[in-house]
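1st attempt posting a full record on here, be nice pls
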Amino acid sequence: MRAKTQNVAVIGAGWAGCAAAVALSGNQHQVTLFEAGRVLGGRARRVTSKVFEPILSVKTPFGIADDLSDPSRHEICHDNGQHILLGAYKHTLQLMQKVGIDPRTALLRLPLQMCYPENSGGMTFLTRSLPAPFHLMAALWRADGINREDKIALARFNSAARWMGWELHDDCSVSTLLERFDQTSRLIRLLWHPLCVAALNTPPERASAQVFLAVLRDSLGARRSASDMLVPRVDLSSLMPDRAAAFVTQQGGRVHLGCNIKKLQPNGDGWRLSANDYDGDFDAVVIATPPEIAANLLAEHAPPEDTALLKSFAYEPITTCYLQYAATVSLPRAFLALIEDGANGDWGQFVFDRGQLDATQAGMFAVVISSSGAAIADGHGSLIAGITAQLAKAFNRPDLAHPNWSRVISEKRATFACTPGLVRPDNRSRVAGVWLAGDYTTSEYPATLESAVRSGNRVATEIDLM
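the predicted structure (as tokens):
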């Protein structure tokens, strides 16, 4: 049981901050949630694009929308990056339900798959509705595009990883792990490499094998539904953060948008928070910002080695290319993998047909490039030219080389680089009454929505027990 109700400030309304704010509010603490931006969600949020090219028609739940040729009147909401969640993300799914989101309607649930466009040189690996591990065995048996040697190598990896308990005595790179397990070059190219960059946003040669195994354990190594792929049908702010803020206010808390907290000052047994137009006193503070901002807020109070750790992270970008075609243009599946070949400008790793997720976005594709530093080096124009040519070639459809409009969104510090043996800070800082929440804090998971939510929940539990 907690000792008393706390007056808690949560700085940052990303997924970790929202999780902490909801959990604390639900336990009757007085919560004030601060967000420097005007949109909730942090690095997984809604953005708005103006359309400067006419769209002939867009299907909506109410029929065909017309009068869309005036660019001053038409805007489209999408995300700062296309996401996939996993069925294993139980804390995220529970949080969504707690704030009133039904995952069955907000997310498209698909079986685990790695499917490439037909005749593009890829593979088709698609699990069925069978109990684990038979769903994987059946998918492996039926897989097209890989040979007997590839299938034996994949089965050997799965068997050895289970025998090891998905644990390593000493961390190493994913590339080293795959080499130890004698994975074939084709399997690495078509399965392990795209899975690694999608899950850890770090190339296999630099990515932590132990963190990768933890993700595989909770998806491939768990019940069948845990490996399901969940694709948002709504924008990421609507998927949870907007409802989280509403939940906090319904519980008597407050939410301040556009409020950039600049300073923490000790005030008796608590803390005073200051912004340009705000001052307030709190019993406890949750810093749910990126680590470098947390370091700045703690600079006057924390040991130098703690702030140095917060500033030591390297980062990886994620880029999403949004392409709008005619509303009649669609893909065979809601999403497909693409063969990446940066030397030829083929940077796309996955392509999503947004029209199969949201009828108002018919004809819109989202092409995702994780760990995209090299892809964006020559500018957005060059990237779009390469991506559209890649799609036209992969699907054997010349029309895909000519979208009506396009937009590139790069989140330059989308995630920390998830390298072997990476040291991550604890949630409880060494400053009394101050906690850290974020996907970068101590966890066996990489920088995902699930690790952010878990971090926020852990902080709320610790504060609740004070």
